[in-house]
Amino acid sequence: MSEPTPRVTLTRLPAGEAAHLNVLVGTGRAFAFTWAGQPAQLRFTAAAEAAQPTGHLRLRLGEHAVDLGYLALPEPAQLGVEFAGLEAAGLPDELRLGVLETLLEEPLALLGRGGVALRAEGWQPGAGLAPARLGWEIHRGGQRFLAGTLHLDDPALAALAALAVRAEPAPRQSGDAIPVTLGVAAAHLSLPVRQLAGLTPGDVLLPGLSRRDWEAGRCTLWAGAVRIGEAVRQQGKVQILAMKPATAAPPAPAAAAPLKVDDLPVQLVFDVGQLEITLGQLRTLGAGFTFELPAVPARLVTIRANTREVGVGELVDLGDKVGVRIVNWSLA
């Protein structure tokens, strides 16, 4: 007898809290500023990802009280050579507050010039008075410099989210160096899961490929499960005819009854080769661009299901159509 599937429990969020957390955490915003002459970034994270703080700094955000939890106190030596030799753990609370105020002097002044009233009021060991609602991290010089938790009530969370919307987020990297696999497909076919599971070597698939198109070398270009262009292939060389807006596999038709998993469509692509490029190179592709593919047997194709290789097929003539006979097949 199989064990029961464990039940997933979701935490119910108060009205409006999800929207505030989406602004601060869900969008992956990074707020850029300069600290001690170095570029720095502030990011908020989910509270569950943050460790318990060793102490917290009480801040006043306008009329709201906010506890800023620190995973570890910054060492006084980070403030300059004149503080060398002092250890944060050995300082009384009043001096710890002074260290933190000195450390935060520049970013607090920057916030003040932007119309954000934020000041430090006191240091206390342990967690904040309210539960942790967010985590926070400051990266400076390419490394994490400070991190901790943020303890605040609903009105303070709403105020912080409103400030985040006003702020200009740090520019995101272009991602042009991300690798992309460009697939060249002779044909493609969508099948429901229940039919896919019943396929075996020797079965012939009918992807709607005409003999004329195959002989002319017509093919489509794919990035993952998305069709992005049309091309022509002759003797291992591929020339792009047109780049088109990205087209994913069509969604399953709407039905009155709930859709069963076995009826979900799976996109089969019969490719004749792949080219490894970067996202930046993909942006530059256009009509007339020509590239070469590794030599493969003329009528063999690789069968991919939702981008994953599941078999090898052989093209067979069926009158004015071309089918794909499965040679090797494995969904494991």
Describe the structure.
The protein has 332 residues and is α+β, with helices and mostly antiparallel strands. The chain folds into two domains: 15-171, Chemotaxis protein chec; 179-246 and 262-329, Surface presentation of antigens (SPOA) (Roll). It contains seven helices and 17 strands. It has a ten-stranded antiparallel β-sheet with strand order 9-17-16-15-13-8-10-11-12-14. Strands 1-2-6-7-4-3-5 form a seven-stranded antiparallel β-sheet. Helix 1 (17-26) packs across helix 4.
Q: Helical segment tally?
A: 7
Principal-axis shape equals: elongated
Task: Classify the secondary structure makeup into a structural class.
Answer: alpha+beta
Could you tell me how far the N terminus lies from the C terminus, measured between alpha carbons in angstroms?
A: 24 Å
CATH architectural designation of the largest domain: 3-Layer(aba) Sandwich
Sheet with the most strands, sense and barrel status: 10 strands, antiparallel
Q: Output the CATH class name of the largest domain.
A: Alpha Beta
Spans where pLDDT lies below 50 across 5 or more residues: none
Mean pLDDT across the residues is 80
- SSE run: HEEEEHHEEEHEHEHEEEEHEEEE
Question: What distinguishing features does this structure have?
Answer:
single chain; 332 residues; alpha+beta; Chemotaxis protein chec; Surface presentation of antigens (SPOA); 2 domains; ten-stranded antiparallel sheet; seven-stranded antiparallel sheet; 7 helices; 18% helix; elongated
SSE inventory with pairings:
Layout: H1 17-26, E1 30-35, E2 38-46, E3 55-61, E4 64-70, H2 93-103, H3 105-113, E5 118-125, E6 132-140, E7 143-151, H4 154-166, E8 179-192, H5 193-196, E9 204-210, H6 211-216, E10 218-223, E11 226-234, E12 237-248, E13 265-278, H7 279-284, E14 290-292, E15 300-305, E16 308-318, E17 321-329
Antiparallel strand pairs: 1-2, 2-6, 3-4, 3-5, 4-7, 6-7, 8-10, 8-13, 9-17, 10-11, 11-12, 12-14, 13-15, 15-16, 16-17
Helix pairs in contact: 1-4
